[in-house]
Amino acid sequence: MEQSNLWNTTNNCSITEFKYTIYPATYLFIFSLGLIGNLISLFFFIRTWRTTVASSPVNILMVNLLMSDLMMVCSLPLRASYYLMESDWAFGDVTCRIMSYIFYINMYGSIYFLMVLSVVRFVAIVKPFHYIRWQSSRRAWMICIVVWLIVSVTSIPLLRAGTSEGEHGRTKCLELDTSLLETIIILNRGVLVLGFVMPFAVISVCYVFAAFYLLKLKSQRSQFNHKKSCSLVIIVLLIFLTCFMPYHVVRTIFLEAEMEVIKNGYGESCYYIQRLREAAVVTHCLASGNSCLDPLLFFFVGENFISFWRENASRGQSCIVEHNVKEPDSKRVKTGVLCLGPVGT
């Protein structure tokens, strides 16, 4: 399902020059920007890891996003070199197999981590007592482990796609095996629903209900929470609408078009299939770019970043308020950390 090269290797309707130009430039740009952003995020996580803030469910989810993004950005120079060498893979069969595997682990891992993060924020806003009662670093890590297992196991078939012998003695990688296209189309339909449509629907529902809830609140703290939640909504929707939606839409159309080419040939004009192949290149680059946008969550929503700057600017003021919360219908007072924002903002 590697979309970067889902086309026949014949010269008919080829966009070879287009992909040799776009892929290396884009991959190296994403690598530079993503590496800087994720390393800065890693710095803040390391500086605050022993604090209560660092062990919040939100930050545990974000550190897993960080791990996923770092894997992705570190693979991009190898992808770029493949196209700079005009589709000649020089890093061995095992490394080739890992490339597609990393891409899909990163993309669907990011999608599911963003979905869980959105649900956590929804519960923290709408049911703060439940959030305080149930927030646990152990539970957060268990959820992250489940996500990693799901995306890792379901992506195992991609490890079958290794190198192959191409024209002029070149070693091909990241290429489509057209003999498996029917199977890939069937798998794509399932992945489209479970890997994109369902998470996007969950995220949308969470944000709609959270927005209605926040609009009813008038307190100063709720206004801050509203701003912070709006930041989360904007960033997550930006990632989905810019990176993931175009990729899944184009990939679905593209696979069907390639099957039509196999059955009926190119026809009289190359215009449609060439434009579709160019769109496949562009949307694959956009999907890879999610590793550049995820650090925005760390900087604008994550408690580590806010806590670090509040501590340095205000000499010890914490971004997280430790509350003594009286639970509804109970005389018991429970102490917990409600990670919704800095004090006095």
Protein architecture, described:
Helix content is 70%, strand content 5%. It is mainly alpha-helical and 345 residues long. It has one domain (3-317): Rhopdopsin 7-helix transmembrane proteins (Up-down Bundle). Strands 1-2 form a two-stranded antiparallel ribbon. It has a two-stranded antiparallel sheet with strand order 3-4. Strand 1 and strand 2 form a beta hairpin. Helix 1 crosses helix 10 and helix 2 runs parallel beside helix 5. The model is unreliable at 4-11 and 313-345 (pLDDT under 50).
Question: What portion of residues belong to β-strands?
Answer: under 5%
What share of residues is helical?
55-70%
Low-confidence stretches: 4-11, 313-345
* Net shape: globular
> Would you list the SSEs in sequence order as H and E?
HHHHHEEHHHHHEE
